[in-house]
Amino acid sequence: MSVSDHQPRKQDNKIKKFILCSSLLLSTCLAQAIELHAPAVALSNVSVDITVSDAQPLQLVELRFGDSAYSEMSDAQGTATFSVMAESRGTTLLVAIDAAGERASHELRVLPGWV
Length: 115
Hints:
This protein is α+β, with helices and mostly antiparallel strands.
């Protein structure tokens, strides 16, 4: 085997290692993203459930809903559920989640609610 036959294999191995490492890094980053599940519309003075999934298990998850802040511990599956009530009518409130540095956000439109 000559030296020239050996060179392309080394380069091929480096490329394969780079692709493998990049794939592992990308899959790790994507697996850590939290998700926020909330309705698009809520009624004022009516409780609405908001769920956060894919958080780290048994960690504190914070929810900022308008000017209010709530915190819950995620369960063993990495899910935390919040029950919140919007008092403002006709406004759009930004809901933001912060769990171990990961963030997700969702806009929630609040309509007048009647009983």
